[in-house]
Design brief:
Blueprint: H1 3-13, H2 24-40, H3 45-60, H4 70-86, E1 101-106, H5 113-128, E2 132-136, H6 143-154, E3 158-159, H7 168-181, E4 186-190, H8 199-211, E5 218-224, H9 229-242, E6 246-250, H10 259-268, E7 272-276, E8 284-286, H11 289-296, H12 302-312, H13 315-326, H14 332-345, H15 348-352, H16 358-365, H17 369-383, H18 387-391, H19 398-408, H20 412-437
Helix pairs in contact: 1-2, 2-3, 3-4, 4-11, 5-6, 7-8, 9-10, 17-19, 19-20
Main location: cytoplasm
Organism: Halobacteriovorax marinus (strain ATCC BAA-682 / DSM 15412 / SJ)
Subunit structure: Part of the signal recognition particle protein translocation system, which is composed of SRP and FtsY.
Length: about 475
């Protein structure tokens, strides 16, 4: 998300290129474009007004350093203010207190409450080492219980067998007693929703919250990031009734305009604690205002990328590849492991957006999905090779190519094309290893020599002019 907003900000900053210093006259046009970009992104108009005022005041104030590039100064000021309106820092659920921590998950229907409940349980179990109990209390939509149990089973998570014929507050109380008896650390309670805010829904959720008052529950509202200002209005209603402790933005991987992320904290005073970034149970991130501001302004988010890499990359595999490279060896097996690492990190575009300056390049290159499709074809070809062939591709002659083509459902020409590209890769990785030995640019965390093979802008590859949007393979190695 935020692609459109990022592009508009980039256009606005061009107004300061070549200027000797920041002045009221040369930032006026930039501020107008920033204001328009924010309003088009469905950011609350009061937030926009305060944001523009703060940026202008700081840009023209004494804090501006003379002799520093005016464009860079302005970007820094905008970055700091963006982070400020979204909150100063991440505020995760407080797990350090004594006793069981109940987490009440609320929101309207279709916002992703049940899915988030599953994602949060996995996050707390894997990363926080907590014993978690999932509790369905949606008495209006019985299928929600089945959905939550299915998610729990898929993650080997415990769930409470709620009696949906009773009142939700009684279910919550029973679940807490069960959790106490069985020594659970966290109880996640998935509540009912509606298509819109109504008195009955709010009354029921308030009763559940009140029944848990002695446990001082966390109350997290899940909001669809694609709904923009409507999400802000719903958050206000819930906060006024049940006193929210946090907001979760779902569908942050969509083409949402971003208004909710930039408005909710300022309008409601409630912090955004988590963002949901995909369909898989592992696709949940802590919300860091400063990091998101960096992504919007194409300054990257290297810290989050490193954290993703630490979670997704097998250190032993990375070490084995490094040892091979040190011996001047790069096998098809190594290449396959690199593709697996990339897959675990996310899509190509999501990875590149975390690298400073890559957002603008991606807008020029266009759609990278054809390149990802090509990698899938490569994976099928590799899976049709024997272990010996993956360790030494040079033994693959015509007869072996014919067998590999038949096994992978591809043509011999496509198999030959794969090996031609792999030879380029082998040469490039050798060059990267020499760079690293000589103190050159290091690779991505856990990925020897740069990790992301052949994408434009990566070290060790001869640079090409990026293709215009709609290029054959999205540019780079797959062109």
């Amino acid at each position: 998300m935020f692609d459109n907003l990022s592009e508009k900000f980039a256009d606005a900053f061009k107004n300061l290129q070549g200027k000797g210093k920041i002045s009221e006259s040369n930032i006026e046009d930039a501020l107008k474009q920033v204001r328009t970009a924010l309003l088009e992104a469905d950011v609350n108009f009061k937030v926009v007004k305060q944001f523009i005022g703060a940026v202008k005041e700081k840009a023209l104030g004494e804090k501006v350093i003379s002799g520093v590039n005016p464009e860079e100064q302005f970007i820094k000021i905008v970055n700091d203010e963006l982070a400020s309106i979204m909150g100063s820092a991440n505020e995760e659920v407080n797990l350090e207190r004594e006793g069981i921590v109940p987490i009440l998950v609320v929101g309207l229907n279709g916002q992703g409450k049940t899915t988030f409940s599953g994602k949060l349980s996995l996050h707390l179990k894997k990363k926080k080492n907590k014993k978690v109990l999932l509790v369905p209390v949606d008495t209006f939509r019985p299928a929600a219980k089945d959905q939550l149990i299915t998610l729990a089973k898929s993650m080997d998570m415990d769930w409470f067998d709620s009696d949906l014929s009773t009142h939700p507050k009684l279910i919550a109380e029973s679940a807490m007693n069960f959790a106490k008896e069985n020594k659970y650390d966290v109880v996640i309670i998935d509540t009912a929703g509606r298509l819109h805010v109504d008195v009955e829904l709010m009354g029921q959720i308030k009763e559940v919250r009140d029944s848990l008052a002695k446990f001082d529950p966390e109350v997290l509202m899940v909001a669809d990031a694609m709904t923009g200002q409507e999400a802000v209005n719903v958050a206000k209603s819930f906060h006024e009734t049940v006193n929210l402790t946090g907001v979760v933005l779902s569908k942050m991987d969509s083409d949402a305009r971003g208004g909710a992320a930039l408005s909710i904290r300022h309008v409601t005073g409630v912090p955004i604690k988590y963002i949901s970034t995909g369909e898989k149970m592992k696709d949940l991130e802590l919300f860091h205002p400063d990091r998101l501001a960096g992504r919007i302004l194409d300054m990257g988010d290297v810290v989050s990328l490193v954290e993703k890499a630490q979670d997704a990359i097998d250190e032993r595999d990375a070490e084995d590849m490094m040892k091979n490279l040190e011996k001047g060896k790069f096998t098809v097996d190594d290449f396959m492991k690199q593709m697996d690492m990339m897959k675990n990190l996310g899509s190509m575009s999501s990875i590149l957006k975390m690298i400073p300056g890559m957002g603008g390049m991606l807008r020029q290159v266009g759609d990278l999905s054809p390149a990802e499709d090509e990698m899938k074809r490569m994976r099928v070809i590799i899976n049709s090779m024997t272990k010996k062939e993956r360790q030494d591709y040079k033994i693959v002659k015509e007869s072996r190519m014919k067998r590999i083509a038949g096994g992978s459902g591809t043509t011999e020409a496509q198999v030959k094309d794969f090996f031609a590209k792999f030879r380029q890769m082998e040469k490039m990785m050798g060059g990267m290893m020499q760079m690293m030995k000589g103190g050159g640019m290091p690779g991505m965390p856990g990925m020897p020599g740069g990790g992301m093979p052949g994408l434009p802008g990566m070290p060790g590859q001869k640079q090409k002019k990026p293709r215009k949007k709609g290029g054959k393979w999205g540019g780079g190695f797959f062109s």
